């Protein structure tokens, strides 16, 4: 089977999964009522959230420049911003194609080799992965009591603390237990595990993460890189939290809830479907329903508002970036001929 046919099958399956998830999520609520709630959203807060998100993309472009600089490549931030937005635009149609697409754009506009550009993308993803892990831990700490209550009442059907709930509510205990079991399993089946393709992929990912972590040693402006990394995630947080105020049902949620929704939404967006469609909506609406006692209808309305607004922004700005990339590529080719 040719690689083209494999890619067609793979992307067709991801599209089918996205459509199935969307239909599943919509089947759990009254769609007409949900649309009415979405229409009541205050646009000022939504636009503010979108603006902050676009600001994070520009900061990401600037951070990418910092990673390219030690290799001798110094494209303008405006050009890396175009490449970044083309990448986000590509992800709406082909999952995981954004990274390759933005590297290809920079190759055509500024002659940055794709392999080297992709290496810097792996590096920045490594730092983003670390930030996500930190935020997961922080959200667990800030909302520890709420999560404990959820497991006690929803999982064990108890309104008072139980021994089982106590086990769940002790992250050090069950965390150590899970790690111990995984270690025993790994040692026993080590030789068989080494032959698994998924093992090689995980090992390669870990190596990429470590290389990304240590690559900061070669940066000329480490402090600026750290600043942009923190700034990007602050933007992600505020684009989530501020949109709470666009809907009455979510307007009273705490700042800690914004952190939880950022993490949950991020996990939904990482699902292997185009633009996180369906997965993002299910993750976010379920979190609002399970952790914060909102109705499924209100939770889904919030998910639709934030996901639709951000997607439209990517379509508009990303579409313009595709056109700009074509223009810049042609201009570069003309300059090379002179």
From TrEMBL:
It is a multi-pass membrane protein. It comes from the Bacteria. The chain crosses the membrane at residues 12-31, 80-98, 126-144, 172-190, 225-247, 300-328. Keywords: Cell membrane, Membrane, Transmembrane, Transmembrane helix. It holds the Pfam family LPG_synthase_TM. GO terms for cellular component: plasma membrane. It is found in: Cell membrane. The keyword Nucleus does not apply. Coiled coil: none annotated. PANTHER family: UPF0104 MEMBRANE PROTEIN MJ1595 (PTHR39087). This is Integral membrane protein.
């Amino acid at each position: 089977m040719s690689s083209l046919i494999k890619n067609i099958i793979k992307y067709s399956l991801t599209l089918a999964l996205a459509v199935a998830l969307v239909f599943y999520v919509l089947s759990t609520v009254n769609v007409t009522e949900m649309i009415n709630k979405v229409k009541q959203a205050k646009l000022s807060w939504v636009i503010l959230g979108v603006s902050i998100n676009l600001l994070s993309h520009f900061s990401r472009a600037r951070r990418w420049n910092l990673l390219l600089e030690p290799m001798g490549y110094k494209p303008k931030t405006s050009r890396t911003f175009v490449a970044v937005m083309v990448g986000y635009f590509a992800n709406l149609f082909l999952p995981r194609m954004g990274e390759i697409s933005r590297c290809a754009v920079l190759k055509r506009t500024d002659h940055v080799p794709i392999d080297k550009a992709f290496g810097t993308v792996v590096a920045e993803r490594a730092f983003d992965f670390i930030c996500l892990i930190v935020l997961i831990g922080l959200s667990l700490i800030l909302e520890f009591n709420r999560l404990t209550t959820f497991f006690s009442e929803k999982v064990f059907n108890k309104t008072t603390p139980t021994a089982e709930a106590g086990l769940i509510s002790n992250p050090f205990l069950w965390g150590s237990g899970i790690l111990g079991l995984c270690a025993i399993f790994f040692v026993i089946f080590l030789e068989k595990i080494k032959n698994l393709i998924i093992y090689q992929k995980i090992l390669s990912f870990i190596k990429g993460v470590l290389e990304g972590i240590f690559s900061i040693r070669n940066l000329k402006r480490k402090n600026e890189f750290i600043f942009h990394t923190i700034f990007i995630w602050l933007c992600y947080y505020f684009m989530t939290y501020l949109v709470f105020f666009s809907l009455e049902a979510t307007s009273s949620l705490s700042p800690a809830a914004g952190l939880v929704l950022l993490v949950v939404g991020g996990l939904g967006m990482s699902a292997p479907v185009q633009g996180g469609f369906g997965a993002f909506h299910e993750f976010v609406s379920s979190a609002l329903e399970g952790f914060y006692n909102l109705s499924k209808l209100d939770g889904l309305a919030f998910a639709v508002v934030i996901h639709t607004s951000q997607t439209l922004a990517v379509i508009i700005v990303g579409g313009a970036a595709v056109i700009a990339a074509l223009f810049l590529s042609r201009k570069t080719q003309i300059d090379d001929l002179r």
